[in-house]
Amino acid sequence: MKEKMFKLSPLAVLLVVSAVFTGRRDLGADELFYRGDVDLNGDVDLSDAVYLFNYLFLGGSAPGCDDGADATDDGALDLTDGIFILNFLFLGGNELPPPSPFTTCPGPDPTEDALGCDDGREAGDHPPTAELRVISAFAPGVRQRGRALVERNEAGEFVVAEGTAFAVMVEARRNELTRTPFAFDAAAGADPSSLAVRCDADLGDSAAGGIAAGTNLASWFATEVETWSDRIYLLDHITMRVGGAAPWSPAPGVYRFTAVVTDQSCSSSAVVETVLRVESSRAPELFAWLEDGAAVSGAAAQHEAGSGNVRVTPGESAYLVIEAVSNPRGGPAVDASSLSVLADPPFPAGADLSSRFIPVAGQAGRYSMRLVGSRLPTVGNTELEISIGTASNSVSRTISYILESRVDYAEVIQPVWTRNCTGCHEEPGPERGLVLVDPDPESTRRNIVNVYAAGPEFDSISPRHIRPYLPGRSYLWRKLRGTQLGGGALGEGARMPLNGGYLGAADMHLIESWIRQGAN
């Protein structure tokens, strides 16, 4: 730190008496503070200097944390501390010694002295929570925000094939008492980092571009704030893609990942962990993506930020592209004739789309189908099962890929309510206060999206009628399926609609797709 320089204001010149107060308390191991934060409001401003002067010279209340009030970090509370704060704030004076609110998180006093801190911040007053999981990887360059977990074995380990891509995802949620969402790109600075993810074994060969065991993997992760999670769910996701040919693609074995997240208030989560098992394989790499435009160029369209799926827009030229290449660890050649693409629910053109994909000229291993006319998916979400074999016919690879075709609430969902809920869920006197039938569709949508339901208990996993993107956490969806009583839903009553007139598969699919697309 630079040598301390003090510039006395006219007020300070008049203050000719200083008082020194030392030796009253010891700092507890978990009592943290910001230097210069005399009034303990989490910041340093004019009020801190005023608070200190009031205490020193006018009989005001004592600071709750002497170490924080010791702005010069000289082990004493006196006139120079208040002057130092003013000099820093208004005259370009020296930086506050650590821990400063402008450069780091609250911490203990790095200097040994006789001062203490009775009312410092306790680490983790309202800590965030974190989850660590392994998800299916999309094509390179595409936002890795899918919700499809890779398969797990009976031991709960995520399982991937050697030489194939996957992604590690960390989901962070701020404590609800903070009332603001977690955001990795706005969280605490480098000390401590907002993210620390480590693996207990080498990822690849560390001498050939791999990552050594114990390395913080935070710099391999990238994120954008989830626009849909703002205020209500307080979430953000961050992912690290591990391509099959990447230097850090792991060899067969078992890998234990741990993660800790730190939020904007410098509060850290408990350590979470997950286990990845990489099995020996020579299965091919297989990807699918959507491209906008009149020809295939290899530039994949980004997926929706909230759902993680790609969205098809009728009337706009687009290609669905599949790429299949041999396993980078030395697998057999791909057999193009074995390509299979099945759609559920079927396209207007049918469920089996295999024959509609043709090789892309000049781009080995790529196959495309133009999405137009009968080759467009039906309204809602369509899951594609894509598989391909190899020349030796000994190994194959299968992946799932979801296409979204927007479900319009007013045009698609409101008619479902009107046909099936009229009489029970309309004014006046709707059942359980839930209005689903109204001339204004937006009014009924607002009645259910992110609105607490009357039926489930307080600690239900699905307390709201509709939780965007997550049907299983949506109580109305569970009532329609008849699963409101089990699986942590803690609901009540009978399946809806009453008297056995349950919704058909087509309507249920549309409602589920609407929720998964964000319930807009």
Could you explain how this protein is built, in words?
- Mean pLDDT is 86; it is low at 1-29 and 188-192.
- The longest helix is centred in the first third of the chain and has 13 residues, at 46-58.
- This protein has helices at 10-14, 46-58, 66-69, 79-90, 409-421, 441-448, 475-481, 505-516, and strands spanning 31-32, 121-122, 129-136, 158-161, 166-173, 195-199, 235-242, 253-261, 272-279, 285-292, 310-312, 318-325, 334-347, 350-352, 358-359, 366-370, 380-390, 396-405.
- The chain has four domains: 1-121, Type 1 dockerin domain (Orthogonal Bundle), CATH 1.10.1330; 129-279, Macroglobulin (MG2) domain (Immunoglobulin-like, Sandwich); 285-405, Immunoglobulin-like (Sandwich); 409-516, no CATH class.
- The strands form five sheets. Strands 11-18-17-13-14 form a five-stranded mixed β-sheet. A four-stranded mixed β-sheet has the order 4-9-8-6, with no helix packed on it.
- With 520 residues, the chain is an alpha+beta fold.
